[in-house]
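G., the chain you wanted modeled:
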Amino acid sequence: MVLYSASQRANKGRKRHRSKGLTASIYMSDKLGGKQIGTLVHTIAASNGALILDSVPNQKMNTLGPLFRRSIPDNTAIFTDSGYPWLSVYRNHRMVNHTAHSKDKRHRWARNRWSKDGVHVQYAEGNHRVIKQAFSSYGYIKPQYSQLYLNEFCFYRNLKVFGLDALVAKWREKIGVVEIEGSSDLETAKKSKNSDSGVSRGISSKHSANPSTHFHFLADVSNPVRIVKNKYEQENKVLQFFHSEVAKRKYQPPSLQDRKTKSDYTNESYIKDNIHILSKPKYSLLRNAIIENDEFWSRTEFKHYKRYSEKKYNHYAKLIWDNISNSVLSPLSLILYQHRIPHSSAYRIIRIWEKYEIIKLSEGKFKPYIDLSKNYLLKRKFTELPNLLYSKSIIK
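Predicted structure as tokens:
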């Protein structure tokens, strides 16, 4: 969802949608500096009403993936649209295609493009209207302050879901307040805490159901407060703490140079770390393949779809490589099942690895979750995977 997008008039008549997606609507034109003036919001909504909002610079896998891993357990059922094909780490991930066309020629769109077999994203879509209505009262906010406003909105939204008691209990746990049952326990806690550098104090709640319940906390008064000499010292400390906490939670908009910087698919660092291995005659084919890969990414005459194909193969290769070890043979069928990697792409990758002697390949008797035509066991020969070319149109 986009808030406060850059209009064509703000861009001095320049069109913004050179590239597809919502990301193009929050940045100025590259000729005008490429400054971010809009806010791109990523929404994670639960069925019970809980809401998580994050201000993001783009919709790429490396940007959105950590947001899911930080907030959602692995066994959670996740429903998304078709823009998350890389979310294979969650086995209960399902997608709905919002651009599905109807099989009936009389209609353009399919009837089940919003909800299919119980899979929908209406929990997130329903919050978008409320968010836009709430943020319309501000008129405009700068992107660097967007995460602070989104956190405030999430707090009041989640207050209805989790309740004030749960939030207060979490706050007490954070600052060191301990609830103690009975006065004898309180006296014991006082004696143990008074031996420290601070002073302990007990607070009894008159309105609580249990009158003997006390809240015990440690107040650090090791440095005496001088009201006359340092009149505003405590106030300045509070302001400094407030500004430091706000600075931690600010969103940092990327510059034009940061957005144009692409991932490095060359092997410059790999060659430096493994020069003693690549110099051996048995790895001459691997050395030539590394040189060919570096030439491909350094030249500009290759079409964009060839580069896209190579990036896709490199993504699959990285997933397989991260799930095999140097000491134990790992079943390929289990890796393909867990990460939903296409079999044809995986077989092509391991054949190239075997050709360059990067892995040890053998056919085993491991019983996979599903029946496959080929059952391979893999083991690394290198600790790090070199960047190679896998496309048929490039490899001779």
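The first helix runs from residue 61 to 71.

Shout if anything looks off.
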